[in-house]
Amino acid sequence: MEKTTYLFRGDNNYTGGPIGRPLGSLADISTPWEHVRKESSQTSLFTSFTSRRRNAEKFAKSSQIIKVSVSDLNILQQQGLLKIYDLEEVVSLMQNHPQKRVQRDAKNVQQILRKKGEILIEGQLPASIISQCE
To answer: Do 51 and 108 meet the contact criterion of CB atoms below 8 Å apart?
Structure first.
């Protein structure tokens, strides 16, 4: 049997239901790099996950860890319902951005994403693919 790969999120406020905003929504933060550097009071089009459960526990100082299957996320991305931004995707977008300051900041954002093992999801994750970690 093939091992399922999961992404994790520390979220003490999760009580069920979908996570994130549907594609095309409005928010204060509209780029992955702004999300990485965002203020907690700002809304974002992106939801942070990590590939390492240990980071999810530290990230939110959370006792509640949720997980989603990478294969479920890939299916939703193929259906056009969400977009997945890993480290390479974010850095590539930044390096190809027309603004020089965004290009220059790519290495800093890369370091932050790498340290956290962070992966960003744009779009709404249905409750059916979210489960609690034991």
So the answer is: no
Residue 92: partners with Cβ closer than 8 Å, 6 or more residues away: none
Calculate ∠ Cα 45-81-109, nearest 5°. Answer: 40
Percentage of the chain surpassing pLDDT 70? 93
Please list the alpha-helical segments (H only) found in the chain. Answer: 32-36, 53-59, 70-78, 87-95, 100-116
CA pair distance 14, 88, nearest whole angstrom: 28
What integer pLDDT is reported at residue 12 of this predicted model? 83
Reduce the DSSP state of residue 6 to 3 states and report it.
strand
* Sheet with 82-85, edge to edge strand ranges: 82-85, 118-123, 46-50, 6-10, 65-69, 130-132
- Tell me what pLDDT residue 59 has: 67
